[in-house]
TrEMBL record:
It comes from Streptomyces antimycoticus. Residues 2-105 form the Xylose isomerase-like TIM barrel domain. One of its GO terms (molecular function) is isomerase activity. Keywords: Isomerase. It comes from the Bacteria. The keyword Isomerase applies. The lineage of its organism: Bacteria, Bacillati, Actinomycetota, Actinomycetes, Kitasatosporales. This is Xylose isomerase-like TIM barrel domain-containing protein.
Length: 109
């Protein structure tokens, strides 16, 4: 089982394949990582995709995840890929979906 970025990085490095990358997930990192932002910084060279949901698996902004730290770490490493929303929605669905880009931009994306 691979739960933390360090484990994923070790596994990728053990394969010796330059084509493998880590898909990070804010919800799971909030559970498994002691410091999600530090984990992003430590394994920047292997991050290839990012999924976002808040600490309660609802849309970003509906929980208590430290978005400025998480998104700030992605900004620091120069991540320019997509942020894929993999979340449930709370509130009116259309409004909830529309809130995501503005919330992430306001939090550092």
């Amino acid at each position: 089982m691979v739960n933390r970025l360090e484990q994923a990085a070790d596994l990728i490095r053990a394969t010796g394949l330059d084509s493998l990358r880590i898909g990070i997930d804010s919800y799971h990192m909030n559970i498994e990582e002691t410091d999600p932002a530090a984990a992003i910084l430590a394994h920047a060279d292997l991050i290839g995709h990012a999924q976002v949901s808040d600490s309660n698996r609802f849309q970003p902004g509906a929980g208590h995840l430290d978005w400025p730290a998480w998104l700030g770490a992605l900004h620091t490493i120069g991540y320019d890929g997509y942020l894929a929303a993999e979340c449930r929605l709370t509130g009116e669905p259309l409004e909830a979906v529309r809130s995501i880009p503005a919330f992430l931009r306001g939090s550092g994306a």
